[in-house]
Known about the structure:
Oligomer: single chain
Radius of gyration: 24 Å
CATH architecture of the domain at 4-147: 3-Layer(aba) Sandwich
CATH superfamily of the domain at 4-147: Cobalamin-binding domain
Bound molecules: cobalamin
Number of strands: 15
Amino acid sequence: MSRRVLLVGYEDQDNLGIRYLSSRLLRDGHHTRIVAFGSDPGVLLATIRSERPDVVGFSLIFQYMVPAFADVIRALRAAGVAAHLTIGGHYASFEPEALLERIPELDSVVRFEGEEALAELVAKLDDPVAWRRIDGIAWLDRGKVVLNPPRTAAVPIDDYAEPDRRDIDYRHQALPTASVLASRGCPWQCSFCSIITFYEANGTKGRRRRDPVRVVDEVELLVRERGARLILFQDDDFLAGGLAARTWAHRVADELLRRGLEREMRFKIACRSDEVREAVLEPLVAAGLCHVYLGVESGDEANLSALNKLLKPEVHLRAGEILRRLDLSFDFGFMLLEPWSTLATARNNLEFLRRFTEDGWAVAGFCRTLPYVGTPIERRLREEGRLTGPALEAEYRFLDPLVDLLWDFCLMAFEGRNFGADATWNVLRGLLFDTHLDMSGRPRDGARDAAARALVQASNGIMLDVLENGLDLIEDGLATTLLDPDLLDLARLARSEDAGIRRHLAALERSGIEDSYAALFR
Ligand code: B12
């Protein structure tokens, strides 16, 4: 029986989760429609009225969005929507009970990789007994959460049909940008990340790599038939898996070159610093690699150990040098503070950021570690009795109240610079990516690239100087509260300087750096 399924998800970049679900349902002959999640339920309600779906599936990829999803789902029910409402994603997979208790308007939660479970749910929809027996879901039985047995049968990675992109008009994007997944999972066990626990619970521990020829088939279709010019590989770590992974990556590069695609597109990957080597990256650069997202996270040995990154700060510095030598732009994730941080580790991170970004080749920015669900850090903080509140709002204080003061100072001083979708950190990353990109029909403007780098150098310098002065005041006991006049002045200075940077940025931005670009770094 062909069913109508509406899939709703956050979509700054192609939401591959719902697009893989859609292509799986299309294979079974169902009718699917994909819409981006928006916090106004009215828009979705109108779509539901016109689409009349049997099932509405919500993709919750960021846990902080649970309240927004809850409001929309509640409003849909209140408006009389009778479709089966289901949800999936990391938070839903790890916390199905909490989610169903928080949003009892849902009918079910599909846990972990959802393609097969959703296909079975849709197929058995009109048999209320049968669908409630499906493995890998949770549902509400008169207010009581029922967790069905996990789904164990793993789907071979090359059996997944390519994501459904029928509705995406790449050609009208100023820089046509498409996302591709060349593998799923990651072998590394970083304590702040839920990828390994997610795929372990999915019965597919580690990393599964797709056939390189199939990966390039997908890229070729996107470039030559859909007009994509920039490919974002969304693999958590494109080079994870030692020699076998490097050989695999080089086969992807060889296949791109064999088809001459390096002349028509550029691509971005994410990887670790200890995977950055000239001999490993040069073949990828020849095939069109233009940008790397580096999982740096910290420049302090104790922090890196608490984050279980299994590498040293100098490995990051070496990776930065190699990426510069290969003329690759890069951006990186960075946590100034993790739950076991001290003022000394914060100072080491500050000094590391100075060395790593002093030339403005990359934007310095930071956040702090958040105890996301399913992560070893969340578990450890709970065991230490330091995590207060339910997983979703879980909060922790640092071991040293002076580190709490430092973090509160950072929030006050760098609110617009480091935090939020429109943070200067993100916009400057977008700018550097834009100015450094060099491809046929879009040659790099060397002067603009240098100007962008100078602006980033200035912004990095201001942030690090303010942070250093704030740290000095706190460490020397000269500032003991957030209301300390010197801290307030420093924060005011940081914000006014950042406003200055934003004015220069506006002047530099070629009119209308296309949204798709800025979205890259939001
Ligand atoms: C691409 C990506 C982004 C993109 C945005 C993508 C988009 N849609 O616009 C960008 C770069 C913007 C981004 C930013 C951030 N990201 Co991000 N991102 C990812 C990444 C690397 C890939 C997502 C993907 O394509 N996965 C592949 C698909 C196939 O898997 P999937 O999405 O899990 O979907 C499957 C299942 O979950 C399930 N499923 C999912 N949805 C649904 C729905 C239904 C109805 C069903 C039945 C099943 C189902 O079935 C799907 C198919 O198997 C993931 C890591 C990952 N591997 O998933 C992190 C991840 C989602 N990001 C994460 C985070 C924390 C962030 C940031 C907050 C980081 C930061 N500090 O800035 C920001 C937030 C930005 C913001 N706007 O608020 C975390 C979320 C953790 C959490 N518990 O909330 C993840 C899990 C990474 C991690 N290691 O922890 N991100």
